[in-house]
Amino acid sequence: MVLGAHDFESDDHQQKIQCTESLSLSIGSSAAGYDTFRSMKPTNSPSQPQPTIPLTIERLADGGRGLTFHDGRVVFIPYTTPGDVIDARLVTIKKRHAIGELVTLREPGPHRVEPLCRHYGACGGCQMQHLDETTQHDAKRQYVIDPLTRIGGVARDQAEACVEQTCIASPATGYRCRASLKIRWVRDRALVGFFAPNSHRVTDLKQCPVLDPKLFALIDPLRRLIGELSLRERLPQADLTCGDGADEVAVILHVLRTPNGRDRAALERFAERTGIAQLWLQTGRKEGMQALINHRPLRYGVTDLQLTFQPGDFTQANPAVNRWMVAKAMEWAGRGKRALDLFCGLGNFTLPLAQQFEQVLGLESYAPAVARGKENARALNLTNARFEEADLFNAQRVSGMKLDEWDLIVCDPPRDGATLIAQRLVEAGPERLIWIACDPAAFARDARTLIGGGYTLEEAIPLEMFPQTGHVELMARFTKCLRDVD
């Protein structure tokens, strides 16, 4: 069973340890260097420094943290593994649980490995590089099973039976095709990278094994560009995105003021030096995006289709897992007359469904994604695919939906899940559902509604969308239970 701090006191389940850069030198498989490890104290740490205590890590908790017990409390310690014998210091102490920091590794557990990245622990992007891949995959399966039992009300033996092994469809490195990099201009140099854990400090990346090499290759040129700009202190973020093609790379620079003529010349030189396909400026929300360079489109493949997208569109960060996920969904879907795709985006599922169903409708609240879906349908000559703008969190809109008219419904909601949709599905009773989720707890809540309303959870598959991190996504299929009629 995977436990999280939210199982004990939910207000504190997001409390994490802030780590200094020395951690990146000291969380490998050997004990050398652990005496130098220290963490920055959380704001709610005990008023008096706590003594170190000897502990043995028993299992993994959510997010890749180690879990053990001390003085009647559950203790969570980041960057530890089952079997680790450690000295730790408690930095947050509550009635039923505590959060600690690793001080010294006395004996490494059998699942500990050397991290891939020099920044591991100082950078907040990854949480599980110190675990071997099998342990990561097994843990993520449990991250799906546990909330299904705790929140979803599914018996543990049933959850174990219906949750498959974690899908591993991509390498553990070089998989990430989009990233939002934070930027700070500090002491006459540009820091470009991800935030440190539980902090707004930027870890200046000299290495990033999980990024697609096409994206990592832009970081040094980006530093050089920032130094050439007059607005260098007004440029907090750069979004990097790539398509399937070797030359399909785009950059969005978030700027807090309009670049002057000299800045624009520097931006054009950056685009020429790097050979990127697109360069955009964004002020405020996505509606404020402006293309400076737009040489080539970005594309990604699903089934035998090539979908065109813009860098501001939502696409999955792991193309290989996305291809596997869509192919599995099409296998589950089979062929039929009418399919509905909720939260459809630019048509990641809608357009492949149009190859297997006579009529397909995709509903999405983000207007540019709806427009992109229509463009792709026209380009692919999928005349049976329609896209409409719809707010699927609006109770009045959802209550009026005729969901019983569809042979299959695919639902791919954002992180918070789809409470209203699940309730409406129970009322309407379509026979088959395919559900995609990026948060197991939200999925478990929606699954409880569906199961309580007469659906059977047939199968759930954890998706290793973000290797080396504590994040897991999943896909599942439900069928409506047919009751005997007297």
Automatic annotation (TrEMBL):
Q: Which UniProt keywords are given for this protein, alphabetically ordered?
A: 4Fe-4S, Iron, Iron-sulfur, Metal-binding, Methyltransferase, S-adenosyl-L-methionine, Transferase
The lineage's top-level taxon is Bacteria
Per UniProt, residues of the TRAM domain are 46-104
Per the Swiss-Prot or TrEMBL record, the active site comprises C438
- Cite the Gene3D superfamilies for this sequence: 2.40.50.1070, Nucleic acid-binding proteins, Vaccinia Virus protein VP39
Q: Which Pfam families does the entry link to?
A: TRAM, tRNA_U5-meth_tr
Return the PROSITE patterns for the record.
SAM_MT_RNA_M5U, TRAM
The molecular function terms of the Gene Ontology recorded here are:
4 iron, 4 sulfur cluster binding; rRNA (uridine-C5-)-methyltransferase activity
Tagged with keyword S-adenosyl-L-methionine: yes
InterPro entries hit by this protein:
NA-bd_OB-fold, SAM-dependent_MTases_sf, TRAM_dom, U5_MeTrfase_fam
GO BP annotations listed: rRNA base methylation
SUPFAM superfamilies, per this entry?
A: Nucleic acid-binding proteins, S-adenosyl-L-methionine-dependent methyltransferases
Task: Report residues binding S-adenosyl-L-methionine.
Answer: Q316, F343, E364, D412
The UniProt similarity line reads: Belongs to the class I-like SAM-binding methyltransferase superfamily. RNA M5U methyltransferase family.
Write the protein's name: Putative RNA methyltransferase
Native organism: Magnetofaba australis IT-1
